[in-house]
Design brief:
Strand order of the largest sheet: 1-2-3
Number of domains: 2
Shape: elongated
Helix content: 55-70%
Number of helices: 4
Strand content: 15-25%
Distance between the termini: 47 Å
Number of strands: 3
Order of helices and strands: EHHEEHH
């Protein structure tokens, strides 16, 4: 996978679009840190690619939440404790 800087993206855009066709993916960096992924697509596969990307992000978010819950010991709550937490959150949300 090729890495390109934000500066290159601004200054060499047409060259990078050609590279994207060949590489299929480019990682955009700012100050040496990845900030975006450019991924080639076409009309036929656009919707499927977008759906796959969104599903992957949702899966990552769920895994992160599960990991954080486990680290905080929340993965051992009983069904009653979970229901109580949900009810408490709803009361607080409706009060504001």
């Amino acid at each position: 996978m090729k890495f390109v800087t934000v500066r290159d993206l601004r200054g060499k855009t047409s060259e990078l679009w050609k590279e994207l066709e060949q590489e299929r993916e480019l990682v955009v960096t700012s100050n040496g840190k990845p900030i975006a992924i450019l991924s080639a697509t076409d009309e036929e596969s656009f919707e499927e690619c977008l759906w796959t990307l969104r599903r992957s992000r949702a899966s990552d978010a769920l895994a992160r939440l599960q990991r954080e819950a486990s680290e905080r010991g929340l993965d051992e709550l009983t069904a009653e404790e979970i229901s109580s937490e949900i009810q408490h959150s709803r009361v607080e949300r409706n009060a504001s």
